[in-house]
Amino acid sequence: MCEEHRTESALEPTAAHRCGQPRPCKPAEARRVVERAVTERCRATHTPCDAEALSDALLVASELTTNAILHGGGITDFQVDVVGRGVRVSVSDRSDELPVSIAPVDERGRRRVGGRGWPIVCRLAHDVRVTGLPAGGKCITAVVPLSVRVS
């Protein structure tokens, strides 16, 4: 797991605002919900949408939902909210297992398929939290900045 991110136990999942739509079951649906939330906020505040930052948020939503499907027993909840200068994406699944980063090659030096999603989430989001849920499973919440920082 990313050292700079937190793991928590909670009596309730995070308080991210529900997107008002049925729970996405596929990464493409999650991306559409995130894109809609961000573009509606930009339109409402009369601010331009940073295309690169939006792309980062879409990638994080896609990775979190893909990981919930592949490793977490499926998506049990999905929430998105534009907060301050970022977009908060929360994806819940059935697994209590924490996300892990794995080496891109195995012990014999062969390239592994997959294993890059969690490091991508950790790199693009400035706040990532993994919260255990009372009925089992976990909620991963990532806040992605909506303006790209210049290094």
Number of helices: 3
Task: Average the pLDDT over all residues and give the rounded result.
Answer: 84
Straight-line distance between termini? 25 Å
Unreliable stretches (pLDDT < 50, length at least 5) are: 1-20
Helices and strands: which structural class? alpha+beta
Element-by-element helix/strand order: EHHEEHEE
Oligomer: single chain
Radius of gyration: 15 Å
Q: In what order do the strands lie side by side in the largest sheet?
A: 1-4-5-3-2
The percentage of residues in β strands lies in: 15-25%
Share of helical residues: 25-40%
Outline? globular
How many strand segments?
A: 5
Largest sheet: number of strands, sense, barrel closure: 5 strands, mixed
How would you describe the overall organization of this protein?
It is a single chain. Helix 1 (27-45) runs antiparallel to helix 2 and helix 2 runs antiparallel to helix 3 (117-124). Strand 4 (127-132) and strand 5 form a beta hairpin. It is built from three helices and five strands; from the N terminus they run E-H-H-E-E-H-E-E. Strands 1-4-5-3-2 form a five-stranded mixed beta sheet, covered by helices on one side. The chain is 32% helix and 23% strand. It is an alpha+beta fold.
TL;DR?
The protein is 32% helix and 23% strand. It has 151 residues and is an alpha+beta fold.
Question: What's the topology here?
Answer:
Layout: E1 6-9, H1 27-45, H2 51-71, E2 75-83, E3 86-93, H3 117-124, E4 127-132, E5 138-145
Parallel strand pairs: 1-4
Antiparallel strand pairs: 2-3, 3-5, 4-5
